[in-house]
TrEMBL record:
Catalytic activity: ATP + protein L-histidine = ADP + protein N-phospho-L-histidine
Keyword Transmembrane: yes
Protein name as catalogued: histidine kinase
Source organism (scientific name): Paracoccus liaowanqingii
Superkingdom assignment: Bacteria
Amino acid sequence: MRPNTISGRFAVLTTMFVVLAELFILLPSLAGFRLDYLESRMERAQIASLAVLATDESIALDLESELLATAGVLNVVLRRDDVRQLVLSSPIPGPIIATYDLRTEGVLQTIDDSLAALADRQNRVIRVIGAPVNQAGQLIEITIETAPLRLAMIDYGLRLLAVSAAFSILTAVLLFLAAQRLILVPIRRVISHMSAYASAPEDVRHIIIPDARLAELREAESALQSMQQTVTSSLKQKERMAQLGQAVAKISHDLRNILTTAQIFADRLEDSADPAVRRAAPKLVKSITRAVNLCETTLAFGKAEEPAPTLSRFPLATLATEVIEAETLAGEAAGQVEFLTDIPPSLTIRADRDQLYRVLANLSRNARQAIEATGQPGTIEIGAGETEDDWWIKVCDSGPGLPDRAREYLFKPFTGSTRRGGTGLGLTIADDLVRGHGGRLDLLRSDDEGSQFCIHIPRGLAMGADANR
Ligand SMILES: Nc1ncnc2c1ncn2[C@@H]1O[C@H](COP(=O)(O)OP(=O)(O)OP(=O)(O)O)[C@@H](O)[C@H]1O
Ligand SMILES: [Mg+2]
């Protein structure tokens, strides 16, 4: 049992407290013992003196000494009928140094007197006054030596201390055992659960089931349980995500190879004899190139970050038109969603063209999907402009606004999706890409009349990056 353990502390503290309690009992007990001692001497002296008074004649010296020795006193004085009479006497070994009147002594005074009696090692003579038993007179007065009283008090005190020590040890052991059973065993159980859980946190069998009888411990167990449940489920989710990530990476990798082959064939279409095929070929090549790029960036995303933007200056209106064309083609019901633009034709922007395409495509696709889900017609408008510091592009729609969940987990991967088949990555990717440009993506407004996202791309970064190129 080590002192820095709960059980060790418990045992030490219990012993200390019991000893302290016993000390508080010891002082009054000693005072009581002294009082009993003196009263019993007085009683004996009274009996001896009554025996002497019973005989009319004076008694022999031997008998008187014997009576006094039996009573354990030196002198006895009785006051009866207002007459003070020295009934028994013997020579006293020294002067009387103090007189104690037991009829008037208070509790504190008694304790004080007994401590003084214990402290004084010398044998002295004292006078003690008390009331005779059975009202056999007005007063009895004895003279005694202090040494026997002190010895008796020491003897009594030591016995009391021995009993206290035994009692405190017994109490400490009992309390220790009770603490072991009530506190330590359940605590150890929680600790062993925690260690087992720490060794395999994904294993639900290691999650603690609260069953402590102590309310506080049960509370701790419940808190631990809910924490373990959260940790385990988020670990599982992370594991699933990692697996999904691996799967996506594999698919993207193979898809890229397939698309590269398709790209080669598409290139050849440009030499086709059919003019219609020749016209469509560049668009097809562009689409396939974009798909290849997407696969590559997905692979890069699997490595935790998007590649740094490759900046170039290009007219924004053209890019927006491409996005709109792709979204119009992808639209479920023709004509349900109307696309508008409000972009000055001369506005050129310095950014990574493919990345910005993905940002606008994600925002427009979300808006289109939200409108289509309502079954009502709607509009999506891409507007843009520039200030001294940055370029801004707004994507506004007349859809139903973002659901609460999407707003709560805005830009958080995998969590904000409310769409069937949605992965919840679109806005995260868009936000990542814009931030990669040193810009920011804001949700300006979202209510039942529509949503507005705004992209800000700083000129500073673009110019700085340009200067380095
Ligand atoms: N313009 C919008 N109008 C209404 N809801 C929107 C709009 N844009 C996003 N949302 C909501 O935000 C959610 C998250 O969008 P996000 O693009 O991140 O994921 P997703 O569209 O569900 O899946 P994906 O990863 O395929 O894009 C969507 O499920 C949708 O509920
Ligand atoms: Mg989306």
